[in-house]
Amino acid sequence: FVDVEDIVTGLLIAADQSLEGVWNVSSGQRRLLVDIAADLALFSGQEISKSVIVDNDGDPDPGFPAINCEKLQSKGYDPATYPEMLDRLLARARTDGTSLSNGSASG
Fold it and tell me: What does the alpha-carbon distance between residue 69 and residue 100 come to, in Å, rounded to a whole number?
């Protein structure tokens, strides 16, 4: 998972510096969707028990490996940490009136 602001920053760095070839834009951190759902519930003040966990026939979700973004970091890219990313996401949801408890927009 990567914050949209980090994606924009990575693209601007690539454009400003006329980078060519493959440049990974990522958080550089591996996260499982179930962990993010639990963390969002916790950080938004919701009960974790309300989170729905779906498994893969009893096996834990292996998720995706962390994508290395060191090459882009060498050009000035500095992705948000995981807690910063969640804080930004929750702040945006509160700013635009999105209800975190039922996923609908208020007003």
Answer: 31
Could you give the CA distance from residue 22 to residue 14 in angstroms, rounded to a whole number? Answer: 10
Alpha-carbon dihedral angle through residues 19, 21, 27, 30, given to the nearest 10 degrees: -170
Helix (H) / strand (E) containing 84: helix 82-95
Q: Are 88 and 5 spatial neighbours (Cβ–Cβ below 8 Å)?
A: yes
* pLDDT tens figures, 10-41: 999 999 999 999 999 999 998 887 788 788 88
Tell me the angle at which helices 82-95 and 33-43 cross, rounded to the nearest 10 degrees: 60
Q: How confident is the model at residue 77 (pLDDT cuts 50, 70, 90)?
A: very high
User: pTM of the entire structure?
Assistant: 0.71
